[in-house]
Amino acid sequence: MELKGNVPQGQLKEKWIEYRSKMNLVAPNNKRNIEIIVVGTGLAGASAASTLAELGYQVKAFTYHDSPRRAHSIAAQGGINAAKNYANDGDSIWRLFYDTIKGGDYRSREANVYRLAEVSNNIIDQATAQGVPFARDYGGLLDNRSFGGVQVSRTFYARGQTGQQLLLGAYSSLSRQVAKGQVQMFTRQEMLDLVLIDGKARGIITRDLLTGELKRHAAHAVVLATGGYGNTYFLSTNAMFSNATAAWRAAKRGAFFANPCFVQIHPTCIPQSGDYQSKLTLMSESLRNDGRVWVPRHKEDAQAIREGRKTPQDIAEADRYYYLEERYPAFGNLVPRDVASRAAKVACDQGLGVNQTGKAVYLDFESAIYRYGKSKAHVEGYENPDKATIIKFGEEVIAEKYGNLFEMYEKITGDDPYKTPMKIYPAVHYTMGGLWVDYNLQSNIPGLFVAGEANFSDHGANRLGASALMQGLADGYFVLPYTIGTFLADEIRTPKFDVSLPEFARAERETKERIEKLMNIGGNQTVDSFHKRLGKVMWEYVGVARNAENLKKAIEEIKEIRKDFYEDLYIPGSADGINPELEKATKVADFLELGELMAYDALNRNESCGGHFREEYQTEEGEALRDDKNFAYVAAWEWEDNGNHVMHKEPLKFEFVELKTRSYK
Amino acid sequence: MKLKLKIWRQKSKTSKGKFEIYHVDANEHMSFLEMLDVLNEQLVAEKKEPVAFEHDCREGICGTCGMVINGRPHGLLQGTTTCQLHMRFFKDGDTIVIEPYKAKAFPVIKDLVVDRSPLDKIIQAGGFISINTGQAQDANNTPIEKDISSKAFDAAACIGCGACVAACPNGAAMLFTSAKISHLGLLPQGSVETDRRVMRMVVQMDKEGFGSCSNIGACEVECPKEIKLTNIARMNRYYYKSAFASDN
Chain A 250-269, CB below 8 Å of chain B: which residues? Predict the structure, then answer.
């Protein structure tokens, strides 16, 4: 079946404006009688829930956290993009659109991305009005910095805590609507199933994480804003509980899962230190504004460092290989994430890695400290400052820019990054794939809308830095509240749904059976042991670089792990109450299926694009070789338990940009 | 390193809890929560119930984790959440006492998990700027002095972990509440509502069963984000101004 994106006709620049002006509306008196479920209270969920409530809908918002302020959007450090052109450096909506389409390696929908760029400016205005304390210069106006894959400064930031401040802004709007009674807030409730009535999404089944009770919730429409599936890899920069269950349960009820193999591996994370490690920590991409990435040029030096015989300071300038600056002079250390991650892997595969495991490269601030120090010394009136003075001033400037990141790095590693370069390595960070949605952010199940990282729509095969916050908030504040009306306008005569309907009973029963099945396995192995096994397969075979042989191996091994999981899992305690092991088990059960689909999709996509790098498809210089003739489409999968997953294609038509080989050289 | 852990175990809100002793092998690179993960894996392997504790981002920003370690919320390290505390600050042979937050307004739910929802109620009472989506003007229309913005940020850095409440002998939420009131009150776009905000949030704070401030300052010492006591002073100023304003 060929999928239709429902992109409106017309010129790119007019599509959204025209469409918005002519779409069907729901009158205020009818909005009052319409209920909407929003699952997830991160940036996309909180902004959608509060905006829908402001419009007059009755909203039910759900989170598995104890409070809607905890979602992992909060951990985003670096910033949020917008096409304000406050920096007067030639930015525009078109340029933001173009950078994002190109950054995504031409695997996203033109019209969606253009709309994203269009509303980006409103987000900055909205957040500022909510009290988000973005960085300012001495004139009191907003400051910007640069992120990877672009040549302008369009990233707004709030120290290294941009995600936190934006989420707290959305949370405050949400709290205001909770106080008004427009949003009913459900905390510590995890969505375990989607309920369909006559083919439309009309409710969810949740498990109360305190009592274990299964509960039914009905509404006219369901919005999933439940984040990505990076934790399929066990180790990622996602929060411990970030998971795919809500999205995957929707997929099991017939929603298509699009481009699952498009996973972003972030180049600057703190390397793994041991097997006990529970998660990986990101060091913001903003650090690449000033940090220089390098490894020793000679294997012998790298080995000496690994064995503790040499320190990075012992390596002479000429013997340092600044591989990004050398390979990609136009963008240098600010190449996009996929390119930087691959380059790090290549360097380490060549034996140039710099920690004990051989899987780390340096991110060095020495020259930035020197450069800033000299400038500040000058401002402070020093004519011929000595080295110590320059370094003192330089460290002050760096502390102002990245202080909290440097502190975090030191807390975790025990090394002082002002004195010695950071060690970093790529780690799974974000998933561009997700539930398939059309231009309205509606999935193939009518009434099921998907926002933020949970959908697939805007980032193609690779997301640019500072664009996740932008997309989450664009969807929640400025897109979905309009587009959901296209569905609800036809539902004004639909009365509220009763949760005693047989569809709810059935979904609840099936959920209960799934939980009982897991509880009753009675084996000997912990959930984490299976999750770690899955993660290892995913990282080795469906990670930075993939090939057909390994992907086939991955599919077989994942099936094997899944079999073992259902034979030998052990969950202590009971299902009637707080049971963290059971919570993990329901998530891992879903990762064990989604992981297979990711490998399946990666095997199908016989090209390299963005974060999906197939070793068979590369240029002589080791760059990605895209195949627009055969793969300029969205692969939207329908899961089949028998392993014969069905693909639905949505061809990607590029009417306004020319497909080019992505080059950052 | 070999550690002896004395951990508070409590089955439910209503049941009586007690300390249990556990032994765990850790290494200095682990975070405190990874050390607890190791303990829990061990317990599950022995078919015993793992220790319930809350956590999520493990990057010190979501505010989900929080427990009292050797008598101090989030442990001994200044400006650090439990998840960012690493085992290199402990020694081989140490005994570590781990308890849930103790405060009247935060009942224990299980083991180290407490109910912090009263903090959300305080925010719902007025911890926002009343603006709907779409009503904003251009962000640069109102310049804000860098120092003011920076001060507002210092207060906005609160992660809502509740350590300030746990640290306070009175179980007060003054630091938490004043941080939000300061953040919004310092900014021109938020100052419009200060009077109403401060009255409503303070009333809600009392209603939720939080205690009063007696200027002890433990909250500031234990705050993982180093939110300053001066915020409480600012909140009090706003409060008196609002309470004694002639047209009230």
Answer: none
The two tokens of residue B123 are 């925010």
pLDDT digits (tens, 9 = 90+) for A186-215: 999 999 999 999 999 999 999 999 999 999
Q: How does residue A663 score in pLDDT terms, banded at 50, 70 and 90?
A: confident
Give the whole-angstrom CA distance, residue A549 versus residue A554: 9
Q: Among the options A95, A216, A292, A337, which is catalytic?
A: A337
Q: Please indicate whether, in this complex, the C-beta atoms of B86 and A51 are within 8 angstroms of each other.
A: no
Please report which confidence band the pLDDT of residue A58 belongs to, taking 50, 70 and 90 as the band edges. Answer: very high
CB contact under 8 A, A74 and B61: yes
Q: Cβ of B117 and A47 within 8 Å? A: no
Mean pLDDT (whole number) for B218-230: 98
Task: Quick: pLDDT tens for B148-175.
Answer: 999 999 999 999 999 999 999 999 999 9
d(CA A91, CA A13): 16
Tell me the CATH architecture of domain A267-428. Alpha-Beta Complex (3.90)
Nearest chain B CA: its distance from A164 CA (Å): 7
Q: Taking 80 as the threshold, does the pLDDT of residue A636 lie above it?
A: yes
Q: Residue B230, Cβ neighbours under 10 Å: how many? A: 14
Show residues of chain A in contact with B41, CB under 8 Å.
Answer: 526, 528
Please indicate whether, in this complex, the C-beta atoms of A131 and B62 are within 8 angstroms of each other: no
pLDDT at A332: 94
Length in residues, chain B: 248
The reply to whether ipTM tops 0.85 is: yes
Question: Is A179 part of the contact surface with chain B (CB cutoff 8 Å)?
Answer: yes
Residues of chain A with CATH 1.20.58.100: 509-626
**Topology (CATH level 3) of domain A509-626:** Methane Monooxygenase Hydroxylase; Chain G, domain 1 (1.20.58)
Domain architecture of chain B: domains with CATH: 2-110 (3.10.20.30), 116-130+142-244 (1.10.1060.10)
Q: Do A70 and B86 count as a contact with CB atoms less than 8 A apart? A: no
pLDDT of residue B144: 98
Q: What is the pLDDT of residues B135-151, one digit of tens each?
A: 999 999 999 999 999 99
Q: Where in chain A is the domain with CATH 3.90.700.10?
A: 267-428
**Longest C-alpha distance within chain B, in Å?**
68
DSSP B97: E
Q: How far is CA A39 from CA A2, B29, B55, B133, in A?
A: 29, 36, 20, 20
Q: Take residue A541 and report the two structure tokens written for it.
A: 């075979």
Q: What is the spatial distance between Cα B248 and Cα B196, in angstroms, rounded to a whole number?
A: 11
Specify the pLDDT at position B2: 98
Q: Where are the alpha helices (DSSP H) in B46-101?
A: none
Q: Shortest CB distance from B138 goes to which of A67, A125, A185?
A: A125
Q: Report chain A residues whose CB lies below 8 A from the CB of B54.
A: 66
Predicted confidence (pLDDT) at residue B245 exceeds the cutoff of 80: no
Interchain contact B246–A (C-beta under 8 A): no
Distance CA A437, CA A421 (A): 43
Is A32 noted as a catalytic residue in this protein?
A: no
pTM above 0.95, yes or no: yes
DSSP string for residues in A569-602 = B---S-SSS--HHHHHHHHHHHHHHHHHHHHHHH
The 8-class DSSP code of residue A314 comes to: G
Q: Cβ of B193 under 8 Å from any chain A Cβ? A: no
